[in-house]
Amino acid sequence: MHSDSTITPRNRLWTPWRMAYVGGTAREPGCVFCNRLAASDDSRSLILHRGRHAFIILNLYPYNTGHLMVVPHAHVQDPSELDPETQAEMAALIGNLTALLRRVLGCAGFNIGMNIGDAAGAGIAEHLHQHIVPRWVGDANFMPILSSTKVLPELLAATYGKIRAEIARDISGAGDAKVIAFVGDTPALVVEGSALPVVALESGRAVWKSVLDAFSGDFDELSILGWAGHFGTGKDEDTIPALAIRALTPRGGPQARRLLAHDDLASLSNADREIVQRALDRIAP
């Protein structure tokens, strides 16, 4: 666990906006983590990766952008109840995630740890989980103190897409990523010939950055919308990552690129149509 030798108002991450969750009375039946693990739609559940003994999930009520949790499959309350295999897998996942999050988010450090039991401040005390909170210099600014508001730089869907794409690239060894580029507020997306664009990934550079780099010469404004691959993480090791982006103000890119209306997808392959439909259903602007 990372710890600060001196805790001051400047470096304490105070989060009053989380009281809606911590103090709320409307909780879903059963265990939140077990419910997510039993569901098949990992993107809706915010699950980023499923291991043999543990999984990675994005926090719905983050302390900071990219706040993840590593959770054992086993429904236990204390580390002493974990078998050695689960302990080893959780440690390995955490070690891999710190390097990955630095690459994806450019964070300067982390808070890593567990709150064990209600008295320690655990929000879900019945199911052990380890927090990984990315940190930046000065990220605990005046906004939470004056207005009980945490300003996050992007929506959860975008953060999820960036991290999921990176994990998928790491476990699959993919050298490319598929892109669903929605153009402004128009009902159109970018295609190359009769297929969705495929972007070559640069070694050591985050997937999402390589994707935006590939379109930066064609559009003035670009942003990540979210993950557009399979809903379940089980197929991530066999398929290339897929991200949806929003592109504004086209400049007129390569001749092979053209715009295709959302209602004119028949020219695409079945696989590409499925990807576009997933993006339209979940994250289209």
Question: What features would you highlight for this structure?
Answer:
285 residues; 8 helices; HIT family, subunit A; 22% strand; Nucleoside Triphosphate Pyrophosphohydrolase; elongated; alpha+beta; five-stranded antiparallel β-sheet
CA distance, first residue to last residue? 39 Å
Helix percent reads: 25-40%
Strand fraction: 15-25%
Q: Kindly identify the CATH topology of the largest domain.
A: HIT family, subunit A
Give the SSE string: HHHEEEHEEHHEEEHEEEH
Give me the side-by-side strand order of the main sheet. Answer: 1-2-3-5-4
How many DSSP H or I helices? 8
How many beta-strand segments? 11
Structural class: alpha+beta
Could you say how many structural domains there are in total? 2
Instruction: Name the CATH architecture of the largest domain.
Output: 2-Layer Sandwich
Low-confidence stretches: 1-22, 142-149
Shape: elongated
CATH superfamily of the largest domain: HIT-like
pLDDT average, as an integer? 85
Briefly summarize what is shown.
The chain has eight helices and eleven strands.
